[in-house]
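Q: What structure does this chain adopt?
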Amino acid sequence: SIQPHGVLLALRLGSDLVVSHASSNLQAVFGVAARSVVGRRLEEHLPELARIAAEFLEAGESDDGGATFLK
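A:
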């Protein structure tokens, strides 16, 4: 389960950060409904978060499982 003070966003990295999954509490944390971002580029709804994610990915930080996490 996702903690109430955080959200889960899964992004397709090879497709300009398209959101593939979003937790339902996205609305409470960021003011955007999860159903409105799934299938869309993160930049369309959360441009500042998209910028941070892009910078993080450019730094090449990931765990051994191939997943990349923003904390």
